[in-house]
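Technical annex B. To support the medicinal chemistry partners, we prepared a structural model of the target in complex with iron/sulfur cluster, based solely on the information shown next.
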Amino acid sequence: MMMNSTPDAAKLNWMTTRLDAALGWARKFSIFQYPFVTACCGMEYMATAASHYDMDRFGAGFPRFSPRQADVLFVVGTISHKIAPMLRRVYDQMADPKWVVAFGVCTCTGGFYDNYATVQGIDAIIPVDVYIPGCPPRPENVLDGLMKLQEKIAAGKSAADPSAGRPAEFQVPHRPEAHL
Ligand code: SF4
């Protein structure tokens, strides 16, 4: 009698689904963030990271200052057209999978710096996963954003994923000549 050695597809699917869930769970509690800090929001970023609010309990207490060792880019503060190419370069140096948090209204929309020198939202340069508004955002808002990011990480979703419907390369539409 012939033995059927074909693996049971349903069983394999179950195993890969469980493996993805386990990887997502592990990833969401081992966030290695790169803080790209340019302005006053940095004070609130430090307040959130300090012991009172304790980012460490979300597995995000260990910033890395090399983009090659980081998987979450925290963009904290106003982004001028002058510094925009550096932000893009840091993002490009991070390995996949990677995520981006826009910290404060300046990064989300330019905030009240509606002028020729300021990027009107960093999503013109890099894909953003979580927007945290506020000037500056309260630490509670930051932690709320961090928990939303954890949900995305656990689900294996990232704005960097081309299947998320965004172009792989981003251009700054406001003053492209400033990036030459
Ligand atoms: S959002 Fe407010 S606190 Fe944050 S960098 Fe902009 S001006 Fe400063």
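Notes passed to the chemistry partners:
The first strand starts at residue 33 and ends at 37.
Confidence is low (pLDDT under 50) at residues 167-180.
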